[in-house]
Amino acid sequence: MDGDDAVTNGATNVIYNSSWVLTKIISPNGMDQYDFNYSTPGYWDTDVVQSNASRVIIDLIDNCTNTTYPEINPQYPSGGYYIEHQFPTQVLYNGNLIFSLTKGIRHDVHTAAVNGRLDQLLVYNTKGERLNKIVFNNDDYFNLDGGDKTTKSPFDIRLKLNSIDIYSSSDVDFQSYSFVYNTPDFVPSRLSKSQDLIGLYNGKSNNVLYPKAILGSCVFQGANRDPVSSSADNGILTKITYPTRGFTQYYYEGNRDDNNNLEPGLRIYKIEDYKETGDLFSKRTYSYVNEQGLKSGRTNSLPSLVSTVTFNGRDNNSYQRLIRNSGIPKGELPNIYYKSVKEIIYNENGESNGYTFYKFYPASSGMQSWIVSPYENYINSDVESGKPLSNDRYSEDNSMVSEDTYSYFKNYQGVYTEGLVLYLNENYNNNEIFIKDNGTYFSIERHPIYCDNPTVRCALPNYVTNWQNYYAGHMDRKYGPLFSRSVKATGSIGNIGAITKTEFFTNGLQSQSTKEFSYDSSVDYLLRKIKNTYDNQNIEEEFYYYPKDNMVGASQELVNNNCLSKIVKTEKFYNPVTYSSNELVFKKQYDFKELFAGGPILPYKISLSKSGNFEERIFLEYYNNGRLRESYQNNGPSSLFFWDDDYIYPIASIKNATSSEVAAQLGITVNQLENLDENDLNSINGLRTNLSKSYINTYEQKSRVGLLSLTNPRGQTTSYQYDNHNRLSKIVDEMSYIISEFIYNLKD
């Protein structure tokens, strides 16, 4: 903080971090690491120009009658703020560059063009070879009106994405997605006051933002904040064209509640898909009704910009205060949600096989704001808020075909925190606060007049001394409207609880299956059991166990390394209705250990069972870098694995040979096997002669593209060919005969 706001033209500059950026991701076993690098173009000057008052208060004595009050339009200069953005520039995987981002100039930032527009994304493999280039064609602007982007006011234009082009490694453009918007030159200036309740454009000629109000027979002039859907859709996406040249068109209408009242915002009512020829392929229509045809919209959190309070003034007159706001915090809830949506899908001939009702739980919980000042946020979240309730499918003759229903597991003890906020209750303006001694605690009382109902107020000392002897003191009347309330954040921890699928047949019969999910608080509410029931008879149950269950080797080490959700054991039971108890079908257990002190914790033993006792069936050994070296069965054959120099792709697998046998044939030690990579493929291929009882497969890989060749145990090589866009085009045998060929329906 610097500056001096106590002098003429003084100012206080406050520097603070408004967000944090991700810089690193490391996998739980430590073998994979992603690094994110950023750059900054410096501070962006985002000075705020003079603005209309955001809150207007008028005090009226007694009742207002037959008066029209003009708009109040004071101007005040605000300070401004500067933002130092952090733009991602690179993503590295284990030290190798895999993504690079470049920026371009944009002109919709106040005062000057800045280097802050995503221009290109370059994709590399771990060998430094460029695979793709993704170009964002967004050096264009809404509301440009054919003008020069360098001379238009930055407040009048907004960045517009016209298309995304994907280029091959040879810079051939082979995939392009283009976008069309509704009346892009009618998108309003960011300074426009033509806004509805939630800030969408409504085309009204407003001079202020606070709304017009009517109190009794008095009219207080102000803005028209009503929604106008034909204006709100300016600039909205209407068409996407795909690389196949086919395209999709979107159609919108205004939101409406259950009384068919127009509400702010837009909803989709039709989606049309077209072939590359321009012929219609399919159409989907949406109506926001329930199965009885009633409107299903529910208003949720529309801001109330007008309020009134009544209070006694210091002159003993009764006042009514009218408060109008330009806007208030809204929270994260949608202003309207729909409990039911009907979808009909038509084919290219306009035929439909029926329709579907999608039903939802009320989207009425989450972060919200108090409806009165200071509009602090509070959180009351519910797992099922806005989630699917059911999908009901009907045939064209209105017979139900199937129904999927969803329920959710909730634990309301999951999240709870509480704080305190101060606010003004203006109904208590000019009330005196008295501190009351209750013997064991103090409280406060508010009184609008002094003494024992006198016509003339007495002095405060006499009041405190004589009126009631249990008052210990008083506070200035300016604190009269000051109140406090608690602000809470509560929520439920949960997930999907059950999915029931029912099919209805024309003969009146039906079939039903239910999948139930159970969660366990002892392992932080991870999934414990899945129970499948078929027609209320045959039952399957599968159980899952985790490091916190402390059932396998190195459980505590896994917990210490925060590997809490790793499944270490599974059990599956089958219980037909004729059985009295569950029958164990299968169970599997993984035991873990540290590869070395402080190293990754990896599974080294897999035990299986179809009865009560486990059998140790598979053992795993690793290189020091954590990649799998060898797997072998108890009294069975082993398999050996070799990796490329980035330790990402396997380059060879040898079955029915041990590490010692392979190392001896290569003339190296077992520890030196870790150093073999794709440069040693000739030596590995040569093992087929001396290890004749082994099955050797070798692989050539192109990093982040796919397999180039596979040489099987007989020494026969199959090749995989790719086009300029790194798409698999042919699979060819060693005699150059084509085994498979792939043709893509994309433009050249």
Describe the 3D structure.
This protein is mainly β and 748 residues long. Among the domains are: 1-46 and 81-182; 430-480, no CATH class. Helix content is 5%, strand content 48%. It has a 34-stranded mixed β-sheet that branches. Strand 3 (24-26) and strand 4 form a beta hairpin. The longest helix has 8 residues, at 460-467. The protein is globular, with a radius of gyration of 35 Å. The chain starts with a strand and ends in a 7-residue tail after the last strand.
Write a concise synopsis of the structure shown.
By secondary structure, the protein is mainly β. The chain contains 6 helices and 53 strands. It has a 34-stranded mixed beta sheet that branches. A 3-stranded antiparallel beta sheet has the order 7-27-26, with no helix packed on it.
Which helices and strands appear, and what pairs or packs with what?
Layout: E1 2-3, E2 12-13, E3 24-26, E4 33-39, E5 43-45, E6 51-52, E7 55-61, E8 68-69, E9 75-76, E10 82-84, E11 87-93, E12 96-106, E13 114-124, E14 130-137, E15 140-142, E16 158-160, E17 163-167, E18 173-181, E19 213-215, E20 218-220, H1 229-232, E21 237-241, E22 247-256, E23 262-274, E24 280-287, E25 297-299, E26 306-312, E27 318-325, E28 336-338, E29 340-347, E30 354-360, E31 366-369, E32 377-381, E33 388-395, E34 400-424, E35 432-437, E36 442-447, H2 460-467, E37 471-475, E38 482-504, E39 510-520, E40 526-534, E41 538-545, H3 555-560, E42 569-575, E43 583-594, E44 601-609, E45 615-622, E46 628-633, E47 638-643, E48 650-655, H4 659-666, H5 681-685, H6 687-690, E49 695-702, E50 706-711, E51 717-722, E52 728-732, E53 738-741
